[in-house]
Design goal:
The protein is α+β, with helices and mostly antiparallel strands. The chain has helices at 2-25, 30-37, 41-53, 70-78, 84-100, 143-149, 154-167, 179-192, 232-253, and strands spanning 57-59, 66-68, 104-110, 113-119, 135-138, 195-198, 204-213, 216-226. The radius of gyration is 23 Å and the shape is elongated.
Length: 262
């Protein structure tokens, strides 16, 4: 009885592996796909033909190779609505946004950038042009990045800066800082537990705090506001308690498996 309950799960896993491989590689034959997935040629062909009948996979009439269709992309775009960021974190961000008016974001460090993985721009009455999710921005001059970098060992920060400055040699000079200045700023951020900065070349500023899960700080919560409407000191007085509380609640809900690391 136990074995019969496991087999359907195994078949689903194999099917997902097949579709994932076709999606990753594209223009692949049944034999090549079987070799990569470790399935028999017959089983691989059955999975592929099933996906083809559902419209997720198509075969080229000239090369006889398989690739995914736009239907897979549509399915992929729908995934974020069911992951933890939307199901668990988004309601907390929306609640805080309703309280402060300005938009909140949940962000993570990825490949020398700060990536916004969730935001409430659509819900804020103070945003005219909403920011999209998964947008990546420079790490210098962004409070959301500073609070995460402040939690990293100095050698890790140096490596992240090295990657970031290869893409943008003016990363620190744009915010009128040297490496030494930036490290000193991060030390201060770590002591105070938050940061508030103007975004370079923008009318916006952010105040942010890390999401702490024990010794782990993978995410940051921030409020974005126009510094012509709210000064940096006013932002600390008005928004700090809200983002700290929101970060605490997010930490209680999000997974700790590092699945969002990039």
């Amino acid at each position: 009885m136990a074995s019969s309950s496991i087999r359907p799960v195994e078949r689903v896993q194999r099917a997902v592996d097949v579709l994932r491989t076709v999606n990753s590689i594209g223009d692949i034959t049944i034999s090549e796909l079987a070799k990569i997935t470790g399935l028999s040629r017959g089983a691989t062909e059955r999975y592929v033909k099933t996906f083809a009948s559902l419209g997720f996979v198509t075969r080229s009439q000239t090369t006889r190779r398989y690739s995914v269709t736009d239907k897979v992309a549509i399915l992929s775009k729908g995934a974020p609505n069911s992951d933890w960021k939307s199901v668990l974190a988004k309601p907390l961000l929306l609640s805080a946004c309703e309280k402060v008016g300005w938009p909140l974001s949940l962000s993570v460090l990825r490949n020398g950038h700060l990536t916004v993985v969730e935001n409430t721009d659509d819900a804020s009455p103070l945003v005219v042009i909403p920011m999209r999710d998964n947008i990546s921005v420079p790490i210098a001059g962004r409070a959301g990045a500073h609070v995460l970098l402040a939690e990293q060992p100095a050698q890790v920060v140096d490596q992240i800066l090295l990657v970031a400055e290869k893409r943008d040699p003016h990363l620190l000079s744009r915010i009128n800082m040297t490496r030494q200045d930036f490290r000193a700023h991060l030390d201060q951020v770590k002591k105070q537990g938050y940061d508030v900065t103007r975004i370079p070349g923008s009318k916006w500023a952010t105040i942010a705090t890390p999401v702490r899960q024990g010794d782990l700080c993978t995410y940051s919560v921030s409020v974005r506001f126009r510094h012509s409407a709210v000064s940096l000191d006013q932002a600390v007085a008005r928004f700090k308690a809200t983002i700290v509380e929101t970060a605490r609640k997010v930490a209680e809900r999000i997974p700790t498996d590092g699945s969002d690391q990039g």
